[in-house]
Amino acid sequence: MTCAEHEGYLLRSVSRRSCTILCVVALALYAAVLFWFRIGSGDVKNWDLASADAFVYFYPSYEQMYARVVRGVLPRWNPWQLFGTPWLAALQPGLYYPGHFAYLILPTHTAMAVAGVSHMILAAVGIYVFLNGVGLGSVAALTGAVVFAFRGYFLSCLAGPNLVEAAAWIGFGALGVVSIVERGTLRSTTLLAGAAAMSLLAGAPQHSAYLMYAWGTLWLARTVTAEQPIAAAARSGALFGAAILLALLLSAAQLLPTAQIMAEGTRSTSQLPARVISPLGNPAVAMLERFPIVGLSQSFGVMPLVLAALAALGGRHLGLLVWALLLGVVSAVFALGAETSVFGVYRMLPGLGMFRGPNRMLLLTDFSMAVAAAITIDAFVRGPDASASRRARIAVATIVVAAAVAWTVFHVRLGTPGASLVAVGIAAGGATLLLVRGTRVAIVAAGVVLLLVGTEIFVRTDLRLVLPYTMDKVKWLQLYDQSYRLLSRQGAHDRIWLIVAADPQSAAKQAMRNGLRSIEDYEPMNLIRQNRYLTYFGEGAVTDYVNDLPFFGTVPGRFGSSPTSSAGSRRRLLDLGAVGRIIIPPKASQGRATSFFRAAGLRAGAGIGTLAVAVNPNANARAYVVYQTAQAPAETELLARLADPTFDPLALAYVEGDPGFTPTADAPARGAEAQFVEDGEDVVEVEATATTAGLLVLADTNAPGWLATVDGATAPIVATNYLFRGVAIPSGKHRVRFLYRPWTIPAGQVISLASLLVLGLMVVRPRLPGSSASV
């Protein structure tokens, strides 16, 4: 079958498969040009907060994680962040995401660039094959692909690679949903399962949840409009559910360890309080209420808005159009967050209340806009759909056009930039659509519109994405590396406190990159005890939110004073964590640092390079023996006792449960430091000499998955001094070995591999038993 026969408006000499290949190549070339001229070449001097995550989180995370994989090391535990934290379980770096293979063979900055442009292409191709698969022509499908993948919210997601990677699969999953409803084969199920699994493995669960809702509502819309028998609808519903379940199982290697840290962490599946949903403001408010057209880089743009407004006039694909418009309106309203009274409905939907930033639901608004724009182009080229009810076409067109005109007139009167162009476009486009649709002139008009949609992004002046894609940006990011490396050689086993400044060159993960154990780090997925330990240090209170912000790994309050007292008066919490030095980059607040040092009884010493260094002579050893224990009191009281400057960790340790030994009358009053034999990432071995039975304390995070042996014999680990690990040892010299081996890692890997085998079998045998449906 030729494209002309299939669509009615392309050359007869070109096969449908060749046509698809040509369109995919065109999208790839367009993405490459856009990426080269507008995204990959940004000047690092224009760096701003819009690009922050790419520099301060993703670049160092990818660099360090995949460097270990290349060496054949599975990064299970990260001792360089906070007091130690699970590494693989942190969802955002996406260790198991197949698209990250580039990080194993390319320099990190090059791999990030390749991932960025390839996912732009992937998103565009996914939208194209989805729209083409539901019966839209190639020009229409191309238009939808360009509208979604090369402008608006999706483009801004490049600053968070996990966001763009998770969102890029929306089109392929949508095609899988349509195929499940229409064909009901196992191969259709594998397409949806594969797309959902890839989105989950990318490490942006919020986007993945939004995709699930989009696919679920699409399944419902297609099932209703298909007017299937109840049995067929139930069958496709079962296949849809099976696809989502299979996706979860395919992702188990990542999701199972992540679930374990969430069970012990600050980011759980529970609903967030309303006040912390948008703690830094909601950019969707400005975008949707004041600058919805051309005022912001993530705005819709004139041409997509005009096309979406005209979609119902063509009278084609009414079921798909109604679904897209409803999804677009609902997602836009939900994206406004607490600005509207219907946000309570959003928070009631399963899984959505656990995420901050409802503005990210603009992803679905843009997706809906792309579908509507494509339907308009299809109507231009093909003319009205005679099979659709004339009354239904008129009703839908009247409602949609009236709403679009009212919305546009409102923004024209408000003076919104670009609103007048939209008004003129709706009038001119509507007249053209009604007069020339289905003719050769319409084919030319559709091509012109596609050209305008594709060129609009090139003339924008407010697209300022600066990303670490080139070597000059990497060198800029590594400004202090030499100084950090000198610091790392000076204290092999102790910790530092790198004071984070609003500057990627001294961001928290720069310590990790250079082998420094820093108690402050930007990491959204944290164990709750680390949160409360550091929050108490900074604020003098146990709370999960400070100024409506959840704990991100940074010390709340830092040098400033809390409502109760100065953080400097709680310096003992630094001592217990073996924090021997405080590092102050040039852009950190020197005045506030001086105030903190005065309260903490510290002073800045000689610097290293441009970094100021304050030595903490009161820091305790990271591993030591203590001979007296006491049962830990309630959390707040315990932290207060530990923060007391008179508390002596070598004389007393607070434990939870049985300490594993009984103190003797002849035990020394104070313990002594132990010696490190091995101090690796997921294995630590200490040699300790005890005068009598005592407790070996390691001032590293006590977390599920850590095992201990004493001279090769298994020994229990007891929670000590709220956050740390303790192991009972008898008198004499002993080797205590700690090994991080959480059961969730191998279990998740086995489940994922088994599920992958099932997926392969489903591809080989695409039809259900007893099914006569064709592939």
The separation of the N and C termini measures: 17 Å
- Unreliable residue stretches: 1-13
Largest sheet: 5 strands, antiparallel
- What spatial form do the alpha-carbon principal axes imply? elongated
Q: What is the helix content?
A: 40-55%
Question: How many individual helices?
Answer: 29
Averaged pLDDT: 88
Strand order of the largest sheet: 11-8-14-18-17
Strand tally is 19
The portion of residues forming beta strands comes to: 5-15%
Describe this protein with a few key phrases:
29 helices; alpha+beta; five-stranded antiparallel β-sheet; elongated; disordered N terminus; single chain; 775 residues
Could you characterize the architecture of this molecule?
The relative contact order is 0.11. The protein is elongated, with a radius of gyration of 29 Å. The two termini are 17 Å apart. By secondary structure, the protein is an alpha+beta fold. A hairpin with a 3-residue loop joins strand 12 and strand 13. The protein contains 29 helices and 19 strands. The model is unreliable at 1-13 (pLDDT under 50).
How are the secondary structure elements laid out?
Elements lengths: L2 H5 L8 H24 L12 H19 L6 E2 L6 E2 L15 H4 L2 H26 L4 H12 L2 H5 L4 H7 L2 H13 L3 H17 L2 H22 L3 H21 L1 H12 L19 H8 L11 H9 L7 H18 L7 H6 L13 H21 L7 H25 L4 H18 L3 H17 L14 H7 L3 H10 L4 E4 L10 H5 L14 H12 L5 E2 L2 E2 L21 H5 L2 E6 L5 H11 L11 E4 L7 E4 L2 E3 L3 H9 L9 E3 L16 E2 L1 E5 L3 E8 L3 E5 L7 E5 L2 E3 L2 E3 L3 E6 L2 E9 L3 H21 L11
Parallel strand pairs: 3-6, 9-10
Antiparallel strand pairs: 1-2, 4-5, 6-7, 8-11, 8-14, 12-13, 13-19, 14-18, 15-16, 15-19, 17-18
Helix pairs in contact: 2-5, 2-6, 5-6, 5-8, 5-9, 6-18, 6-21, 8-10, 9-10, 9-11, 10-11, 10-12, 10-29, 11-12, 11-16, 13-29, 15-18, 15-20, 16-18, 18-21, 19-20
